[in-house]
Design a protein that fits this description.
D-Maltodextrin-Binding Protein, domain 2, 12 helices, 46% helix, DNA-binding, LysR_HTH_N
């Protein structure tokens, strides 16, 4: 962890000063005294080595450097909030009010923001989160082990209702040194189907979505089966072979250049990520709130 950003409380307070226009207003928003807020800002200025806030009788405003630091800090503070919401949901508590199961793509890349939004409107709600592949999530919902679930597979078992919360696209990815990384023409669907891939296990929504997209061709036996998206990405980066993963899961690696996307022609690789619940039942309370948050995200 970089030494200047080990404590995000000061950066969070700086963002409030920028939004509210004074240290006093920011202090009230954070439930601390104005002297304590001023001291925290001074400590942050000492950490960063630059003046962040101009103080005057009319209020406080960020310096040019302060505005720049605030812009840099904003996504970090938001990501920390998402992380906190996700970790809190993983802790199964006796007073839990809402039980959620999610496929790995949704659990890793979408659900934390939704849980953070739920905490803002239902701060007293405890959430217990489990993750697995789409088949396991559907089974948990049907067995009443959870109140609602999120899946990424195209198949929906009988007994479930569903609503789309996001659209994802499957991406064929390879290591930068792979021969396909230098291709100028799209990979043909039949060639992709015949190529052994690094793949998720059976029951995975990603694997099933690819099977449906490439039908009637049958997929070759996987080169390697792994139950973790992170493990698959690592194996691809090591040059073991190609893989097909959701665009949400590989966005950072494609930007960094540690993975390369290969176009696939003649086939639609989009898929729906869906909220599921028991057919005939009605979502209520925090479950309905979380469902509404997720659907608004669509």
């Amino acid at each position: 962890m970089p030494l200047r950003v080990t404590d995000l409380a000061g950066f969070e307070l700086l963002l409030s000063v920028a939004q509210l226009g004074s240290i006093g207003a920011a202090a009230r928003a954070h439930g601390i005294s104005q002297p304590a807020a001023s001291a925290r800002i001074r400590q942050l200025e000492a950490q960063t080595g630059v003046a962040l806030v101009d103080r005057s009788p009319r209020g406080s405003r960020l310096t040019d450097s302060g505005a720049l630091v605030a812009d840099w800090a904003r996504p970090v503070v938001e990501a920390a909030t998402d992380l906190e919401a996700g970790i809190a949901a993983l802790r199964a508590r006796r007073d839990e009010h809402l039980r959620v199961a999610a496929s790995l793509t949704v659990a890793e890349y979408l659900l934390p923001k939704w849980l953070a939004a739920l905490r803002r409107i239902d701060p007293g709600t405890a959430v217990a989160l489990t993750s697995g592949n789409s088949g396991e999530v559907a089974a948990q919902v049907l067995a009443r082990e959870v109140d609602l679930g999120f899946v990424e597979g195209p198949d929906l078992p009988a007994g479930l209702d569903a609503e789309t919360v996001a659209v994802d696209e499957l991406r064929l990815v390879v290591a930068p040194g792979h021969p396909w990384a230098r291709r100028r023409r799209p990979t043909r669907p039949e060639e992709l189907a015949a190529t052994p891939l690094i793949s998720r296990e059976r029951g995975s929504g990603t694997r099933r979505a690819l099977e449906v997209a490439l039908a009637p061709a049958e997929l070759a036996e996987p080169l390697l089966e792994l139950s973790s998206t992170t493990a698959i990405k690592s194996a691809v980066m090591e040059g073991i072979g190609p893989a097909v993963l959701g665009a949400h899961t590989v966005a950072a690696e494609l930007t960094a250049g540690t993975l390369v996307a290969v176009d696939v022609g003649g086939v639609d690789l989009h898929r729906e990520l869906r909220l599921v619940w028991r057919a005939g039942s009605r979502l209520r309370g925090p479950a309905a709130d979380l469902a509404a948050i997720a659907v608004r995200g669509a």
